[in-house]
Amino acid sequence: MRIGFSLPVFGKATATPGGVARYARAAEEAGAASLWVGDRLLSPVAPEVAYPGYDTMPEEFSIAQDPFILLAVAAAVTEKVTLGSSTINATQYQPATFARQLTSIDVASNGRLLAGLGIGWSPDEYNAVGVPMAERGKRLDDLLDLLEAWWTKDVVAHQGVGYTIPESHVGLKPVRKPPVYLAGFGERAQRRVAERADGWLPVWSVPEQFPAEALTGGLAKIRAAAEKAGRDPGALGVALRVNAGPGTEPELLAEAVKKIVPALDADHAFVDLTYLTSSVDEHIELTGRLLDLIGKG
Predict the structure, then answer these.
(1) 45 and 59 in contact (C-beta within 8 Å)?
(2) What residue stretches are annotated with the Luciferase-like domain (predicted)?
(3) Which of 96, 196, 219, 292 would you label with 90, given CA atoms 20 to 30 Å apart?
(4) What is the pLDDT at residue 295?
(5) Distance between CA 297 and CA 294 in Å, rounded?
(6) What is d(CA 150, CA 104) in angstroms, rounded to the nearest whole number?
(7) Domain 4-294 has CATH 2.40.420.20
């Protein structure tokens, strides 16, 4: 079983100068299969919509790094691991800049990028970037069109939602077209995965908050919809994020991972260590311990 881990994106560990690079090197050397980032622009004191399961926002989110920069750092100090996102709130970014950033990271990593995209849930963040939250679904569909053009055409022209790209030379291409995985549990989101994505980004929590059938059933629906749309359902991948709640014992976490990953037959799976560590050294130590408990695959 090949397991990856979250980079220190949030909390005290990510504020350590040079810490993310040190962790990325150590994780690859320890046998991690992949390294992942999340995306949190704001941690409002009184959020319009609280973080799921909280009255406000988790303390860890008050310190957050830029996901693109961390992917670039990891690309520079590793050679083999997949570099993924679960999830970047794609519709909160200017689309042309977003396309260029993803392309640059794929080139820097020699084709190791997995672009995991979503649309977010925070009205405060949408207000901060000046994007109407009600347009997020439409903007994601538009962005997927732009990425297809950006990665496959030498001259790109695009009339987007609120922006226009005139005929322009786009000479920088990814090493290979990055797979795009999409998040979402709603009907429209899962239909988009089935019709447009290379894979799905489900989330599992430890301790368990819902039965595994919620994920396996969702995946079955997505693959049925993909077949209905004329796509190969077996070609849709799964990149599973396992969220470890505060204080979760490594042994319990390892057993949960060994249970849920085979149930979904996930091609990528990673453990989010955000709530379990407060330093880079702890992040490195826990990564090694979990790899020993789970098996390096």
Answers:
(1) no
(2) 3-261
(3) 219
(4) 84
(5) 9
(6) 12
(7) no
